[in-house]
Amino acid sequence: MSKSAITELANTLKILSDPSRLAVFDLLMQGVQCNCELGDQLKMPMNLISHHLQVLRDAGLVDTERDSTDARWIYYSVNQKAIRQLRQQLDAFLDIERIQPRQPACGSRRISKRLTVTRR
């Protein structure tokens, strides 16, 4: 993976590493929610829920939609395109086919390999 791809993945994982934020995101994975529903389910104050939602929005992980009849209400949902991209990044990063057989270039294995070669 490129350095920029690793940095991007690390930044997303850092955002999701906060347990409270991950709990908010987990509820959003169950479907559209409003701030008050999230606060009630997580027993967290509205300002803290709003903070976590803003961080998730800034990262592009969450979308918003205002109520068409009462603009005071905002509904939050997971950005499915961003989640598909995150899954692709994780799949690429954790692909076991990336693991190559190799010997360390340092430590006792290197020394024993060098001794074996020298003794021949």
What attributes does this structure have?
120 residues; mainly alpha; Arc Repressor Mutant, subunit A; three-stranded antiparallel beta sheet; 6 helices; 3 strands; 60% helix; 10% strand; elongated
Percent of sequence in beta strands: 5-15%
Give the tally of structural domains. 1
The CA-CA distance between the termini, in Å, is: 39 Å
Tell me how many strands there are. 3
Unreliable parts: none
In the CATH hierarchy, the architecture is Orthogonal Bundle
Run of helices and strands = HHEHHEEHH
Largest sheet composition: 3 strands, antiparallel
Give the class from helix and strand content and strand pairing. mainly alpha
The Rg value, from CA coordinates, equals 23 Å
Q: Roughly what is the average pLDDT, rounded to an integer? A: 90
The name of the CATH superfamily reads Winged helix-like DNA-binding domain superfamily/Winged helix DNA-binding domain
Give an overview in words.
The chain is mainly α and 120 residues long. The protein has one domain (3-119): Winged helix-like DNA-binding domain superfamily/Winged helix DNA-binding domain (Arc Repressor Mutant, subunit A), CATH 1.10.10.10. The chain contains six helices and three strands, in the order ααβααββαα. A hairpin with a 7-residue loop joins β2 (62-66) and β3. The longest helix has 14 residues, at 3-16. The chain is elongated.
